[in-house]
Amino acid sequence: MDWLKKHLKALIILVVAVLVAYFSQVPVSDWLVKKKIREDVAVLSQLYTGLYRQGFEQMRGLSEQLSFVCDDGDIELMSQAKARNIFVEYVDLHLKNGKSCSIYNNDHAGRPLMVFPDHDQLKFGNVSLILSGNQFEEMRFSSQDGMLRFAFQQPRNFLTNCNSCLFMTVDVSGRDVQLYERTEEPYKEAFNGTLDNGMGVKLYINQRGVEFLVGDLVDLFSILVVLFGVLLAVGVELNTSDRKGLSGLLNEAIESNALVPFYQPIVMPEGNKYKVVGAEVLVRWLADSGEFIPPDSFIPIAEQNGAIDKITDQLIDNVLADITTVSLPKDFFVSINVSPSYLEKWDTAEKLLNKIECAGLDPHVLSLEITERTKFSDLKKAAICIEALTAKGISIKLDDCGTGYGAFSYLHTLNIDTIKIDRMFVTGIGLTEFKNNILGSILAFARESNLHVVAEGIETKAQAVHLINNGVEMLQGSYFADPIPFDAFKQFVLSQDISENSGLAI
């Protein structure tokens, strides 16, 4: 059972691929048949109906040339008529006096002149088309001197080596006339259209014909569908294996306290300097190799497998342990990212306040930044938690404002006092007017709502100056310092300011 659960997705994909391959055979074969013979049918239909029409015109013309005496001249004219039409198998002449002749004998016709009921005849004046089983059999011209007869042969099936695999009908005076021989096998319609001359044509094919035309292609299609399913299942298995492997390593990293807090200074302008007023904590995974793994590689997994709250708790413990080792400037704060699910838990507020009290710190030193990678599922629970925290002086910031889920609804519902402007609205300063317009709208909203503003992603002096001139209070970015371990961060805390172009920005 465990094996089935482990590989369920891959098995479902394989089963679906097999079912698609199986049940698509009929529609795929129908589509291929219609595509493969559509042009041939139209061309051949025009050819065959044209030859029958030619026979009709030949008969009228021949009747005007014959002497109706069965002499050598009549025999020659009838022979020439047969030679001009590949569907005419036999031509003979029956006179009123009882004498007859054919293209093979000038003494008598070799075939009897049978009588057919009216429902087996299509009459066009003195010309009659004789049908047998809805197939053209004969064409007869009657006059006061006698009767001229053309006997027809059925055209060969154009599916070579597949006899009686299909038959075609044409609409003649409202009646479907069959052009090919057929058997008792079931046939299905493969073509139904109207030719340029207005004549309706239908073509029917049996299973032997389908297999003859496209059998190998349908089999190939089915094989390709199954192979695609196999490849997709293998990809899912590999991806699941990789993710489960990384998830397991992440749990081990949490247990071994290998997730290390890095600090990026948050500054505020003061004269010609920038005073360090706080820091954002960014988690880094210290791998066994000694290299740091960026959060984009493991935070999404932690959010999916539920480890994100455990990481947050551990990160807060490590941050509180760090900042208790230094004397912090007045009103200095440290911001830690928290997910919406973390703030929806009933014990979060009490747990955080207890941690701060045990560390001997003032609650205002801790600031929480709400990330928007996932949605709040219960805003009321989150609002209760946030109210309990803000009542003790903890600042609540909305990270990456305007880029995630429901930012403005959060600002309306939750007790958020600060918004953070994402780097995407900063990088275009001086380059793209569109982003500046959006930035201006966000800043105007912040002013109207009495919200503090922090802009992150500052990389140039021009960006910093523009933001300060437009009312941004605090700045954060590589122009001042990249995220660094706490030991390196201490110098910023102790110096309390960064001079422009001082070389402290790293």
What attributes does this structure have?
alpha/beta, ten-stranded mixed beta sheet, six-stranded antiparallel beta sheet
How would you briefly describe this protein structure?
This protein is 42% helix and 24% strand. The chain contains 14 helices and 20 strands.
Structural class: alpha/beta
**Oligomer type:** single chain
Low-confidence residue ranges: 501-506
Mean pLDDT: 79
**Fraction of residues in β-strands:** 15-25%
Helicity, as a percent range: 40-55%
Distance, first to last CA? 54 Å
DSSP E strands, number:
20
| Cα gyration radius (Å) | 45 Å
Apparent shape: rod-shaped
Question: Count the helices. How many?
Answer: 14
Largest beta-sheet characterization: 10 strands, mixed
Written description of the protein model:
It is a single chain. With 506 residues, the protein is α/β, with parallel strands linked by helices. 42% of the residues lie in helices and 24% in strands. The strands form three sheets. Strands 11, 12, 13, 14, 15, 16, 17, 18, 19 and 20 form a ten-stranded mixed β-sheet that branches. The two termini are 54 Å apart.
What topology does this entry show?
Blueprint: H1 2-6, H2 8-23, H3 25-65, H4 72-83, E1 88-95, E2 100-102, E3 121-124, E4 127-132, E5 135-143, E6 146-152, E7 166-172, E8 175-178, E9 187-194, E10 200-206, H5 207-255, E11 259-270, E12 273-286, E13 292-293, H6 299-305, H7 308-323, E14 333-338, H8 340-343, H9 348-358, E15 366-370, H10 379-390, E16 395-401, H11 407-413, E17 418-421, H12 433-448, E18 452-455, H13 461-469, E19 474-475, H14 486-495, E20 497-499
Parallel strand pairs: 12-14, 14-15, 15-16, 16-17, 17-18, 18-19
Antiparallel strand pairs: 1-2, 1-6, 3-4, 4-5, 5-6, 7-8, 7-10, 9-10, 11-12, 12-13, 12-20
Helix pairs in contact: 2-5, 3-4, 3-5, 9-10
